[in-house]
């Protein structure tokens, strides 16, 4: 059974989603059945993912060949520390979003839970696949599910945001196919490990074509990750989505970041000859500009959902800096920060929705409105989320930013990285302080108490589940950083990848 663990995080949501389209789960009146099934599916996914993580820790990286067709010819899944960490993260984030949706958002459409499962399946597959073509396939699965989830519940704003989102991603998918065709034409394979072996053996003419394909991939991953100048879709899209969908979308940008780390470390890494680190000159300025634009967007945000979306953009820029440093130490720091930022920004979208529910028509816009009916509970949740996402001690954001800053060793790196990250953190504090002051202290009166909405236990439990990860990342910080150190070393050590894929003979 353990030999099939790598494929279970994909199969469980796939078959779970299909079953929920059939009786006794189909039909608007069967929502309780769908909730029960979804909860069981989420717990199963997390259990399998944690089991896979424990096996990878004990036994090392592993791969799964579908139909026993071996690499580089068959469809293979590759589970190393990096992949399983992100699969576990996806499961926890999905559980938080699911619990929040149980408060009633899932009843706004009868296909909410099946679509959620399809999206989780696509994200898990993108993290686990061992070849670029199946990365494209899983990208499409998660995108198709996200198109439907974004418009869940209907509305003009959601429709408008969805049209832009679909068009952009269709363009991105087309570029992805062009990139795959270009790279396959030069290397003769799309298996990531096999490409890493062949890329340094290309002729001068083939290197030019492969470089074009690699840069096209950077555009695709940059679009998914919301890297400048391809970030403009994110604030509007995330702000328009329903709260649990926006929370789950917090990991969508990390799929693009994962693609950058995996492809440009393994295929176009140090061993790639003339194509080694080919995107690094591009990543440095784009990372800084992404942070700067995200910080400006945070200051200009008209409501808490836009602010949370722009904080996602800042986190993307910070992760790109960790990638640009090109050391295992920086990669490890980036992985810690990735886990922290994904969970806290997901929680912030849920908190924004809860605050909006209690402020009447003003929702979460930064204007005077009626006082929230549960200020103590919402205030504590907002305060913890704000402190965490801004990077203040003693929360996980502080540790995440600190270890990224420590991974910059040269004077030039420190001169550029330290001011940008610290000033972005200061701007985040200012933006969040303005938001908290307006939302909790500027009110017109108690208003009509007959219209007050009490928060559901499902809503609070979903937000708390994501927020509690921050103190846990601090309490177990030594164990987590030890894990991320090992994950980064595994990513940068290609010989281990070749051995797992049984390509060591070709590597000699």
From TrEMBL:
Main localisation: membrane
Record-level GO BP terms: ATP synthesis coupled electron transport
Pfam families per UniProt: Proton_antipo_M (PF00361)
Annotated membrane topology: Multi-pass membrane protein
Family: Belongs to the CPA3 antiporters (TC 2.A.63) subunit D family.
PANTHER family for the chain: NA(+)_H(+) ANTIPORTER SUBUNIT D1, NADH DEHYDROGENASE
Signal peptide (UniProt feature, chain positions): none
GO CC annotation terms, alphabetical: plasma membrane
Subcellular location: Cell membrane; Membrane
Transmembrane regions: 6-24, 36-54, 84-105, 125-151, 163-184, 204-226, 238-261, 281-300, 307-325, 337-355, 376-395, 415-441, 462-483
Record keywords, A-Z: Cell membrane, Membrane, Transmembrane, Transmembrane helix
Keyword Transmembrane helix: yes
Domain NADH:quinone oxidoreductase/Mrp antiporter transmembrane: 130-426
GO molecular-function terms, A-Z: NADH dehydrogenase (ubiquinone) activity
Superkingdom of the organism of origin: Bacteria
The protein's name in its UniProt record: Cation:proton antiporter
Coiled-coil parts of chain: none
């Amino acid at each position: 059974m353990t030999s099939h663990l790598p494929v279970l995080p994909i199969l469980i949501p796939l078959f779970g989603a299909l079953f929920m389209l059939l009786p006794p789960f189909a039909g608007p009146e069967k929502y309780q059945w769908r909730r029960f099934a979804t909860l069981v599916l989420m717990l199963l996914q997390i259990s399998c993912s944690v089991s896979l993580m424990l096996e990878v820790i004990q036994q090392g990286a592993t791969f799964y060949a579908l139909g026993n067709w071996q690499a580089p010819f068959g469809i293979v899944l590759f589970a190393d520390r990096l992949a399983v960490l992100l699969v576990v993260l996806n499961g926890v984030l999905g559980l938080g979003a699911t619990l929040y949706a149980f408060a009633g958002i899932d009843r706004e459409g009868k296909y909410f839970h099946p679509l959620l499962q399809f999206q989780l399946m696509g994200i898990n597959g993108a993290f686990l696949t061992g070849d670029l073509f199946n990365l494209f396939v899983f990208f499409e699965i998660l995108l198709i599910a996200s198109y439907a989830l974004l418009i869940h519940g209907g509305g003009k704003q959601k429709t408008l945001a969805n049209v832009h989102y679909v068009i952009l991603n269709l363009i991105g998918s087309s570029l992805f196919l062009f990139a795959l065709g270009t790279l396959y034409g030069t290397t003769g394979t799309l298996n990531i490990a096999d490409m890493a072996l062949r890329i340094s053996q290309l002729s001068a003419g083939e290197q030019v074509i492969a470089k074009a394909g690699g840069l096209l991939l950077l555009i695709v991953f940059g679009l998914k990750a919301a890297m400048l100048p391809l970030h403009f879709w994110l604030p509007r899209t995330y702000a328009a989505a329903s709260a649990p969908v926006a929370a789950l979308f917090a990991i969508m940008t990390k799929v693009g970041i994962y693609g950058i780390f995996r492809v440009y470390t393994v295929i176009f890494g140090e061993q790639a000859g003339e194509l080694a680190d080919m995107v690094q000159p591009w990543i440095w300025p784009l990372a800084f500009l992404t942070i700067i634009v995200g910080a400006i967007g945070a200051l200009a945000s008209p409501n808490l959902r836009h602010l949370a979306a722009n904080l996602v953009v800042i986190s993307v820029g910070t992760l790109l800096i960790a990638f640009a440093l090109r050391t295992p130490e920086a990669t490890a720091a980036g992985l810690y920060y990735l886990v922290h930022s994904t969970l806290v920004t997901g929680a912030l979208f849920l908190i924004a929705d809860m605050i909006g529910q209690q402020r009447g028509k003003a929702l979460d816009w930064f204007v005077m409105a009626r006082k929230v009916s549960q200020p103590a509970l919402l205030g504590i949740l907002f305060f913890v989320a704000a402190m965490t996402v801004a990077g203040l001690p003693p929360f996980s954001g502080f540790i995440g930013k600190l270890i990224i800053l420590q991974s910059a060793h040269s004077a030039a790196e420190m001169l550029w990285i330290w001011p940008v990250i610290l000033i972005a953190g200061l701007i985040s504090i200012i933006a969040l302080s303005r938001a908290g002051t307006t939302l909790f202290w500027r009110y017109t009166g108690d208003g009509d108490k007959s219209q007050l909405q009490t928060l559901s236990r499902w809503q609070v439990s979903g937000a708390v589940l994501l927020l509690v990860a921050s103190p846990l990342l601090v309490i177990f910080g030594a164990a987590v950083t030890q894990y991320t150190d090992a994950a980064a070393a595994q990513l940068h050590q290609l010989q281990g990848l070749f051995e797992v894929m049984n390509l060591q003979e070709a590597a000699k």
